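User: I'm putting together a teaching handout on how multi-component assemblies are represented. Below are the sequence lines for each component of a complex, exactly as they appear in our records. Could you produce the 3D structure of the whole assembly as structure tokens, so the students can see both representations side by side? Please keep the chain order the same as the input.
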Amino acid sequence: MVENTPKTGYKRHTVIEEEIPIYRRISLFRVLHISALMIFILLALSLVAVSVGSVSIEPGRVLTFFFGPLTGQSPLSSEEELIICSVRLPRIVFAGIVGAALSLGGVVFQAILRNPLADPYILGISGGAALGAIIGIVIGAGAFYLGIPLLAFAGALATVFIVFMMAGKTRGPLLDNSLLLSGVVVNAFFSAAILFFLSIVNSMELHSITFWLMGDLSHASAREILVAALCLLSGFVLLYAQARKLNLIVQGEETAEHLGVHVARTKKWLMVITSLMIAVAVSLAGIIGFVGMMVPHLMRLVFGSDHRLILPVCALFGASFLIAADTVARVLLAPAELPVGVVTALCGAPYFIFLLKRKRL
Amino acid sequence: MSVITAENIRFSYPGKPVMNGVSFSIEAAEMVAVIGPNGSGKTTLLKMINGTLFPDGGRMLIDGRETTGWPRKEMARQVAIVPQETAVTFPFYAEEIVLMGRFPHLNNYRFEDKKDYRIVREAMEKTDTISFAARRLDELSAGERQRVLIARALAQEPKILLLDESTVFLDLKHQAEFLSLLRQLNAVQNLTVMFVTHDINLAAQHAHKIILLDCGKIYAIGMPAEVITAANIREVYDVDVFVDRNPHDGSPRATLLTN
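Assistant: Of course. Below is the structure of the complete assembly, with chains in the same order as your input.
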């Protein structure tokens, strides 16, 4: 925690001039320079991720390959070029997109539910999207352009609706655990339904079971990655326009209303955008848990709660985080691979327990 | 011209009538207290004035314009409300909270500039909150938090300030400071102030006009001396009081009679 204010518990009545230091105040400059830092981290991590694997290539040579002089011979062999350009790089880009989308989903749901434990996976929204996608495959919606992502979107949106019915009209912080309990039940139902469909269809069209249950980033095609990137980018731009409203909604819906936010309209809009982003991520990558809970929480600890900073920073750090997790999943048991959801759950679940015990940001 | 006009307002929550034919009008720069027993519709009335609730029947006019259909931001530039409490789930700093009062004045993409920070600083100086500008809201005491919320309302630069039991968490010193701040804003900047309170004597001492609500109707409205009478209080609150004059400023003073 950035905690540079002295504890003044016993001196409450002595007047100390305390202000947020100028450099910590929100401004376009601060947003841009912290984002630049996060982009740097993202690029550095991606370079490592490109280099390691069953065939390891020194990062220096990869760098010369991308940025070196065009003259002369490529520093990589044609086999290495193939590995980088058509296997590792697309996968890294895709992991970044999915990580960013899930983290943004986490930020938004935590804000509108006023619960720091909310996450698309824990609330069951990812499960809903996966179920929608599988039903789409079963009924043959794959024949239509974007048929499956659209059904995933419907599944996600329906689950969001269920979650909000559970949350009800509580005014205060929704820290109470009924929301999380409903997530557990919804998740159990969805994974049962997913397994049911997978076992009655047993077709080659379906990816492996682990794809839907624990996530897998190796299947996306170039075109799918492009669609996902466009969704993420437009989703982010639309979300960013709502960033200040999110700050106010976090203060309580009534307060936000008093300060000039049209809460009902804003919430609906936010839910549609995030459901869409999550649906695209899930229909292409399966269910990957805990990213959307851990990333926003860590970022809030470090950078405070202003969503104008938190949204871009979470997208970038979420991308880095999932790239790192996927690299671990690739490398740990090489040449065999772990589903990436195993890695995120192995760090996410203990973190969740830790937060649940603390109940305070 | 009157800034707030209520014309025969009726309102009910599902299955529970709250307001039943409320009419009054309030001039600019008046200081009005709203009193009444629990459930008499005080908070509902405030929410109607700032346009977060709308009457089922009758009309509520702010500056001569009906509240229905006002854009929220425009309303928030006219009317600010200090709520009783706020959610503190996420760690915002006190200064950031006050800065949120600038929301209705900025568009979605603009960052706050020097002018906004100056207004925020002034609001924080007036409410004696500068000393914990860089502290997190959840680390503050209830009274300190309340003052931050008052500062946020001032940062909105409203024409009408509504207060919902805003003095209950304040200690005597800050209560006194806050009330003199209100009187000063009211007198110097022509701010119209409307406050809900359970403290009849506080209302009698500081308000120009008192609205006494009972079961969603106005039981009495007028100068403190007209409204605060033993008969009115007995009828509305079902308690016996002894009313005399406060020797300090001559405002009516009610003393609760118990055996």
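A couple of points students might notice: Residues 172-188 of chain B form the longest helix (17 residues). The longest strand of chain B covers residues 2-13.
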